[in-house]
Amino acid sequence: MVQDNTFWRWKQLYYELRQDTEKMLMPPDTTPVMMFVTLASGVVVFILVMFLPAIFELTNPKDSGPRKITDEAFDAVFQMKMPSLERSEETRPDQTLVKKVASALSVLPDLES
Amino acid sequence: MIVGGGCPEENNHMGCFTSGKASAGKTGDNWNVKHVAFGIAFSTVLSYAFLVSNYLSIENGVILMAFNLVFVSMTFPLNGALTTKVALLLACEVVGSLWTKIFSLLAGSNEGIASVFSFLGPFVNLGWMITFYSVTLTILASTGREG
Amino acid sequence: MIVEILETLFLALVGIMMAYLVRHYVFTLSVLKNSRRQQLASCSENTASKSHVSILIPACNEELVIGRILRRMLELTYPRDRLQIVVVDDGSTDRTGRIADQYAENHPQIEVIHRSCSEGRRGKASALNAGLKKVNGEIVLCFDADYFPRRNIVEQLVREFADPKVGAVQGRVTVLNEPKNIVTRLVALERIGGYRVDQEARSSLRLTTQFGGTAGGFRRSLLDALGGWDETMLAEDTDITFRVYLAGYVIRYVNEAECYEEAVESWRAYWRQRYRWSRGHMEVAFKHFGAVLKSRQLGTRSKIDAFLLLNIYFVPVLVLLSWILSVPLALSSSRWLSVGWCAVSLSIYGFVGNSAPFFEVGTGAYLDGRKRAHWLISLLFLTFLYNIPICTKALADLLLSKILHRNTAAWCKTTHSGDGNSYIMN
């Protein structure tokens, strides 16, 4: 019985939190100006999130190619003008972020064992 | 001698074109069938949970399910630990569900916004889908090489 | 009543888009499944063929790049006594002919055909047919003047002809000037999706592999039987693709047979190139539509894939039509709009020519070992949106030219800057 009460309390708390969140996110009265601002903010956020990796790669190309075609006897040698290569020893935020995420995920328990 | 294709030390990514070295772009000995099967089962459970909990509308739930299918079938066969893939899938689920929830709440606030979002909705969803898919490939390529 | 008709039309368009989506999904799964087998195959020893091979290089005002490809031809590992290189200087007004002549003077395997402005300049197909009269090889390969192939590309391509059913082969095209700007980087992504996954899947699933006009070749006997290239077609490569299949042969794609190309570097050049491709492809669609459906040489699966391939450049027009239809459907609160709208949105990431859905491009980039190139995938919708007016205009112009009986085949070539030379050290 005690366990049932606890469960129902948690469920009630969850629904209250959900309603409060929905109230917070829902503007009470939307005037045309507010509607425009809401729309504009949504569009800006959408564009930013959608194009963030592309912006990273365009401004600081780490993989701009071209794909290297090698021959059996010798490698085709390319001259590449890539300013980012000169700073490859510096720590880039996006580069370290990916490595950090990868290393964080690697400590999770192995589901296969 | 400058070579092409990104960072110099990572230039040797051509697999058999160079000296028979294994490349990051492989899909494993048996196509990771177990990973794919587990991924499909896991994503089905997640999608069912979302639909049953009424957290998302049926429409948004279906979009999430479709994304799950594409994500699992395209990324789970690739190299990388199953843990990594499941974690990335969970991250996509969280972000995706939050994304669709926020936009549906905004749409519910006003009829004008609702009509605009119902029109732009699928395009808006593509935003997070493609971004996360791209980043997932990068993470799997990094972990696959180190693993 | 009108709403029901519009709904039916909208759902039909959605059905077409879903068919392409499923097709590309199956292609991607197929390539993922077979990628390891492909890598083992590419490691195997290449045995030198005994076939005599002729290489055709049609060129019109290519002085900036012709020297590069001829130098590369001399570096090919195929036995020189079985290799013939024929340059067709098709009415060039620059130094293309002179540069080719200099190479021909010092290297007997290189021959040059000069056509005057009045005789030539009637399109690439005409130039290729002129070169075909001069070749003596059993296998004829074609390279555009701006290309830079692997040294053993001839062996890679020729070995496929050991199968008597193979009438033509197609190698892989890789963008050389990829780092130049956003246009070249997006075109490179398109190529990755189109060749590494799309062509690879079609070849391995024994569907309709496309000859891309360059970095590939044919059996000489088949070319003679077909009468060479059709000089009235703008997209002579697509036309000959379907003629090969209708003749009962197949085309194989060889992923290891890689060749660099110079991609277009501006949106204007992109427009001109894709306009030519889409108009040419639509022309081929009108020509071979019935023959493909009635063909007894093609199996059911091949027929379906050939049909989808034939009509791929119409898809952007259909997407535009679906957007137009959605307006009255939205106003009438049609329930079918929300059902089908997701498929329409996904279609903006592919289904036109070299373009492919985001998962196809991403998979191709991953299999190539690329780390961050696929971060630009989200920008591919820009190229697709750009392709909508291109394909719409191409269709309108084609229909107009058909009505007015105007021939369009002429040298509408991409101008090559030779900037790719800076990526290759001599």
Structural class of chain A: mainly alpha
Helix content bin of chain B = over 70%
| SS elements, strand count of chain B | 0
Gyration radius of chain B (Cα, Å) is: 19 Å
The percent of residues in helical segments of chain A reads 55-70%
Question: N-to-C SSE series of chain A?
Answer: HHHH
Largest interface: A-B, 42 and 44 residues
Instruction: Describe the sheet with the most strands of chain B.
Output: none
Low-confidence stretches of chain A: 72-91
Q: How many beta-strand elements of chain A?
A: 0
Q: State the distance separating the first and last CA atoms of chain A.
A: 38 Å
Estimated radius of gyration of chain A: 25 Å
Mean pLDDT of chain B: 72
Give the oligomeric state of the chains in this entry, treating copies of one chain as homo and distinct chains as hetero: heterotrimer
Average predicted local confidence, pLDDT of chain A: 66
Inertia-based shape of chain A: flat
Account of the 3D structure:
The complex is a heterotrimer of chains A (113), B (147) and C (426). With 113 residues, chain A is an all-alpha fold. Chain A has a domain at 31-62 and 91-99. Chain A has helices spanning 2-25, 32-59, 83-86, 93-106. With 147 residues, chain B is an all-alpha fold. Chain B has four helices and no strands. Chain B has one domain. In chain B, helix 1 (33-53) runs parallel beside helix 3 and helix 3 runs antiparallel to helix 4. The radius of gyration of chain B is 19 Å and the shape is elongated. In chain C, helix 8 runs parallel beside helix 9 (267-294). Chain C is built from 14 helices and eight strands. The radius of gyration of chain C is 22 Å and the shape is globular. With 426 residues, chain C is α/β, with parallel strands linked by helices. Chain C folds into two domains: 1-34 and 165-403, no CATH class; 56-151, Spore Coat Polysaccharide Biosynthesis Protein SpsA, Chain A, CATH 3.90.550. The A-C interface holds A 50-51, 53-54, 56-58, 61-67, 69, 71-73, 76-82 and C 77, 150-152, 174-179, 182, 185, 188, 192, 258-260, 368, 370-373, 375-379, 422-425.
